[in-house]
Amino acid sequence: MSRFLDSVSIIISTFCKHAKEDGDQSKLSRRRMKEFIQKEFADAIAVSTIDKILQFLEWDGDGEIDFNEFLLLVFRVAKACYWYLQKG
């Protein structure tokens, strides 16, 4: 598998792994997503901003994060990393 497809597969499996912990492999609870962000981005995101991030991601107001909403986080992180690397 190419590196790109391997990366896509990792994103999908990461979402499914955490969603499965909530019992529904298609959605993450807000609590589970908060735990994920705290764990994965502990060095980069202040705890005080996590609720703002969740509010942005959870745009349909159903209290859960589906895969499309999860991808918003992935895209935003990728863009931030790209901008940072371009400045370096």
From TrEMBL:
<dbReference type="InterPro" id="IPR034325">
    <property type="entry name" value="S-100_dom"/>
</dbReference>
<dbReference type="InterPro" id="IPR002048">
    <property type="entry name" value="EF_hand_dom"/>
</dbReference>
<dbReference type="GO" id="GO:0048306">
    <property type="term" value="F:calcium-dependent protein binding"/>
</dbReference>
<dbReference type="GO" id="GO:0051896">
    <property type="term" value="P:regulation of phosphatidylinositol 3-kinase/protein kinase B signal transduction"/>
</dbReference>
<feature type="domain" description="EF-hand">
    <location>
        <begin position="45"/>
        <end position="80"/>
    </location>
</feature>
<dbReference type="GO" id="GO:0046914">
    <property type="term" value="F:transition metal ion binding"/>
</dbReference>
<protein>
    <recommendedName>
        <fullName>EF-hand domain-containing protein</fullName>
    </recommendedName>
</protein>
<dbReference type="GO" id="GO:1902808">
    <property type="term" value="P:positive regulation of cell cycle G1/S phase transition"/>
</dbReference>
<dbReference type="Pfam" id="PF01023">
    <property type="entry name" value="S_100"/>
</dbReference>
<dbReference type="GO" id="GO:0071345">
    <property type="term" value="P:cellular response to cytokine stimulus"/>
</dbReference>
<dbReference type="GO" id="GO:0005509">
    <property type="term" value="F:calcium ion binding"/>
</dbReference>
<dbReference type="InterPro" id="IPR013787">
    <property type="entry name" value="S100_Ca-bd_sub"/>
</dbReference>
<dbReference type="InterPro" id="IPR011992">
    <property type="entry name" value="EF-hand-dom_pair"/>
</dbReference>
<dbReference type="GO" id="GO:0005615">
    <property type="term" value="C:extracellular space"/>
</dbReference>
